[in-house]
Fold this sequence. Notes:
Shape: globular
Oligomer: single chain
Number of strands: 25
Largest sheet: 7 strands, parallel
Helix content: 25-40%
Mean pLDDT: 89
Number of helices: 16
Amino acid sequence: xxxxxLVQGLFEKSDSIGYDCVYEYExxxxxxxxxxxxxxxxxxxxxxxxYPDIPIxxxxxxxxxxxxxxxxxxxxxxxxxxxxxxxxxxxxTQKSIIRWHNNTPPWFYFSKYDNLTHxxxxxxxIVSLTQSEHxxxxxxxxxxxxxxxxxxxxxxxVSVVFPASCYLERASANVVRRSHFAAATTINLLFxxxxxxxxxxxxxxxxxxxxxxxxxxxxxxxxxxxxxxIKKDIELFGxxxxxxxxxxxxxxxxxxxxxxxxxxxxxxxxSEHEGFGLPVFEAMRCGLPIVVWSITSLNDFMREHxxxxxxxxxxxxxxxxxxxxxxxIYNMVMDAxxxxxxxxxxxxxxxxxxxxxxxxxxxxxxxxxxxxxxxLNKSNYLRKIINYNINYIKENFDNPPLRNHxxxxxxxxxxxxxxxxxxFKHMERLRFSQFENFENKGVxxxxxxxxxxxxxxxxGEDLFFAxxxxxxxxxxxxxxxxxxxxxxxxxxxxxxxxxxxxxxxIDVSTQKNGVLKKDKVSINRLPxxxxxxYFDVKDDTDSVEFRVRFKKDFTGEIIxxxxxxxxx
Length: 568
């Protein structure tokens, strides 16, 4: 059996998608006792220092593998919108597996154009993938399964496989259970997750304020996770509140994360959207009591948890945390968590992988009864008839055309997709009106903070790279705009000082057509002029990015203010 595991990036120290891909690589290699040639792992970008024992290969090698192994199985860890791979797998006739970890709905990004562009494109690509008969999906929860079906997917092409975590090694029987809650005078709250608008950071700070008033105890709130620009807004929100200290730990190592779990008293998750909610389970495996707003995927897992609430009420959340001070309640919560952990462990994840792969390879009839209503399944006769008919339809009839339909709360439906596309279309027209604005001479400025980067920090409107050693790479890239067709000039507003190299490279690239223009830039000329590129956009559906690349490792300091774009 030949299996290729593919993920776009393996270059971050805390990346759940990357970890899950590596886990599957290691599991299948062990499961089939396979040589390196049988089970392979590929990534477009990767850092060997984070995966020193994993033989990660390049995207170029992936294409060679596909050509050589026409019948090989591809397991692609979908991560938003990687259109070149999405289209490649649609055109490749061999059956492939799309490992979908869930996408954040666009309503959370409505005020952020760049994120909105990316998430809408991601959902559009998922809809396209569901229409290819040779593609099946492995999703991370029942909730994500419902989301896939809301977008036009079918039960016959989807299996639930929980995501892996390094904390799966901690069996529930080995969880270190603390004797009581918050022995010290201070209560330590923890949340782990990206610092973005919909993860509930402000809500946790507001709960901490109520908890301080309720208990009279000082509260430390710690947030760990990759930080977005919204961090400043959260800091401002929590600044100066009596009895409350808010600490941002950033993207931390695995060792430091374990320390955070150890020093915390309770894990609080008030996130508005979770495809699975790995940190909640990691916290429970580390012996932390949890208080959660149990919507989206957490609603499926936390129904037996006494401090999981399906509605939003800050007073209830604060009261729930305070109740943990009583040993009887604390022990009740910990007992419930040990029971919940039995539903998510290493044995279950491995079994799901085995069953899902077996179903993928089996061309025979499938059993869909796991998705039938309770009372339907009580009648074996009715269950068998409906299951038989589903298989008969699937084998003998073409798929009907997709129709827009609504879905359950919190799910992004085809109606929603249509509405957002209409709104997005009008926003597009307004967005590029600067090209026709005589007051600014038709210059469209894209600030440095809107670009993606490696190792930099956002400083006001700019990107800043402190004096340090950096590895050769595209250090700055993005922000993936769709531009109207036409001819353009782009100027890179960049300052480089104390640099050990004499030159660097700039380019304009698109997802569909690759590099449009590139140039080598002498660092000595930067104080006197902006480096420019002239390029043409022929396809207004293609996403354009502007990149800064260093071909060799170097030491230096960089201020990137962004680009100035105008039509010619």
